Amino acid sequence: MKELGYDVEFSLWVGLFAPKNTPADIVNKLRAESKKAIQAEVFTKAVDNIGDVVAYLDQPDFAKFWDEDAKRVEAAVQAIGKV
How far is CA 16 from CA 1, 2, 51, 74, in A? Predict the structure, then answer.
């Protein structure tokens, strides 16, 4: 985007979502197993091999990130005049 003269940045993230009203025990199990998976040596080595970084956020922090990212995306779209 900067090459086109727009002062915006782009990053890619991945999140795990569950349907609204998913029972708390299932959500908690998904949270625990997700955290365990990203800490597994095979996963960390694979991510390191491609030169990427994992920034794990558990549900409360991810929800905050989600809200902040939506605002950043909205500002970026408005900055390039596509709204």
Answer: 28, 30, 22, 22
CA 48 to mean position of chain CA atoms: 18
Q: Please write the tens of the pLDDT for every residue from 5-64.
A: 777 777 788 899 999 999 999 999 999 999 999 999 999 999 999 998 888 999 999 999
pTM for the whole structure: 0.68
CA distances to 5, 16, 47, 51, 66 from 57, in Å:
32, 11, 16, 19, 11
Helix (H, G, I), strand (E, B) or coil at 31: helix
